[in-house]
Amino acid sequence: MSARDTQVGGTHYKSQKVQPWDVIDTWPAQQQVGFYRGNALKYIMRMGGKDLPSNEARKAIHYLQKLTELLEKIPNEKS
């Protein structure tokens, strides 16, 4: 199952006709990499500050899964 098929913490994105990832995935690869890295870092750094630490960790893992999927598609992935 791909990262796009899941959502951590509700269904607020999956219920939208166009998900934010649909838009982000139209950006150049390096911009996508930066976005997914930044969001994983955000959830790790705020762990326990907004949500349960375990939920924040799951959200970070979710972004890292998306990042991994992207990197596996990029030739010579030196990002």
Summary keywords:
mainly alpha, 3 helices, globular, 79 residues
Structural class: mainly alpha
Q: How many strands?
A: 0
Overall helicity: 40-55%
Averaged pLDDT: 85
Oligomer: single chain
Radius of gyration: 13 Å
State the shape: globular
- The number of helical segments is 3
Describe the biggest sheet? Answer: none
Q: Give helix and strand order, one letter per element, not per position.
A: HHH
What is the straight-line distance between the termini?
Answer: 24 Å
Query: pLDDT below 50 for ≥5 consecutive residues: which ranges?
Result: none
Percent of residues in β-strands: under 5%
How would you sum up this structure, described in words?
- 52% of the residues lie in helices and 0% in strands.
- The protein is an all-alpha fold and 79 residues long.
- The model has no long low-confidence stretch (mean pLDDT 85).
Topology:
Blueprint: H1 20-24, H2 29-45, H3 53-71
Helix pairs in contact: 2-3
In short:
The chain is mainly α and 79 residues long. It has helices at 20-24, 29-45, 53-71.
